[in-house]
Amino acid sequence: MKSLYLGLICLLLVSSCKSDPKQTSLKVDTKELSIAEKIANAHGFEQWKNVSEVKFTFQVDTDSRRGKGRSWSWYPKSDEVLFESLHGEQRYSRKHMDSTQIANDRGFINDKFWLLVPFQLVWDTSARISETTKAQAPISKTELNRITLTYSNEGGYTPGDAYDIFYDEQFIIREWTYRKGNSPEPSLTTTFENYKDYNGIKIATDHKQEGGQWNLNFTDVSITLDDQK
């Protein structure tokens, strides 16, 4: 009898475990995205893995003068760059550069930074990103979220620079202030506007100073995905 009772108890215990969903469910840990990742994703960063080519022309226009512009083609998977200059096309690999290519690469890094600021927040792992605060945007005077991106004093073409980035509740960048060498006073403040969607990647094609007499802008923008080759 004793063995019979033990057998029934074991059977009940096994049946109880099988019917208890807490015993069979798997715990899934979801990692909270950082502010940098949220801003990047709001601009289409999740699509970046599919990008094979980026083309754009960077120029600065004023009320009295139209900029000449610098035209680039970038192949991010191989990190090769094609620069269209007045002297013809020049192609180089950022993985194997020599001193003759530094000037072109300095221009490319600057122009690409403006084009893809939201993604640089994720790419530039050596830079520091502050906690988010609420602040009045310098141009629109509206209350937005603000983070500060600060670069190390070593390495890169412009070490020690800082950027105050203002973004809305959808994590879209609306304005920023550049402070050369992390100086207290702003060196340049512009808007991020006229956003356009290029195969899922959102790019602000106009960056205007207050008053509208100066506009750093992008034309001839195209983003090619792997399956579009």
Can you offer a commentary on this structure?
It comes from Winogradskyella thalassocola. It is a single chain. This protein has five helices and 13 strands. The chain has 229 residues and is an alpha+beta fold. The protein has a single domain, classed as outer membrane lipoprotein receptor (LolB), chain A (Clam). The strands form two sheets. The protein has a seven-stranded antiparallel β-sheet with strand order 4-3-2-1-13-12-11, with helices on one face. The N terminus is likely disordered.
Largest sheet: 7 strands, antiparallel
Write the H/E string, N to C.
Answer: HHHEEEEHHEEEEEEEEE
Please tell me the CATH architecture by its name. Clam
Query: How many helices does DSSP assign?
Result: 5
Number of domains: 1
- Summarize the amount of helix as a percent range: 10-25%
Count of distinct strands: 13
Rg, alpha carbons: 25 Å
Distance between the termini: 77 Å
Going across the biggest sheet, name each strand in turn: 4-3-2-1-13-12-11
Question: What's the shape?
Answer: globular
Low-confidence regions: 1-25
Q: Strand share of the residues?
A: 35-45%
CATH class placement: Mainly Beta
